[in-house]
Amino acid sequence: MKMNPALIAGKLLALALFTAGAANAAEIRVLSSNALKTVVEELGPQFEKATENKLNVTFGAAANLKTSIEKGEAFDLAILTSSALDDLVKQGKLVAATRADIARSSVGLAVKKGAAKPVISTTEAFKRALLDAKSIAYVEQGASGIYLKSLFERLGIAEQLKPKIKLLPASNPAANAVANGEAEIGMTQISEILPYAGAELVGPLPADIQLYTVFPAAVGAGAKEPEAAKALIKFLTAPAAFPVLKAKGLSPG
After folding, report:
1. pLDDT at 1
2. What is the pTM of this model?
């Protein structure tokens, strides 16, 4: 009988951390980018079961979470984009020695499930798809949204797209907006498209204009549970976690 790869991964991860035990059970305060939401939601309970530690996770756009940390929000572990996290390391708010890459992500384009899929296999085809679309949505403060704004300028289509762009808050992901009919096309990290049954991934952006984003984790300089947070990093970077990452549209860091 074949076993689900994710189930196998979970069993291996649990076995790997079984010796951690419950003697030092803790509540770990985690601030995580939305790009890792589905991964943390699946692996988190496995970590809790293996260690009896508890996770208290806040998801959001990396830029917004970075601002919260800079304003003094209490946390034990942050999972952000490399640029945001490395800046916080320089500020002394994260411990550099604990930094570890969790996953690598790319940007994709989504349409409502059942809708015609535009061709985006080349940069010219991608440009044409956007120019032909009636509306385009992305999260303004997300890593992909910030990149897309500059990409449209570089491709020379920013002014033409301006009337059809719908800028979204982090609370309304692009795939959700597409699934709800708020926009014809949505663009965001592929890992943020796959969870929405009402949206369908057309494909990644062409390689020559793709944004590859690395999401590392690091322990907070003022963490109340630094050892438990380190254990969570070890859990998320273990080889047994790779099948889960891949199933969620990510590559191991």
Report:
1. 47
2. 0.81
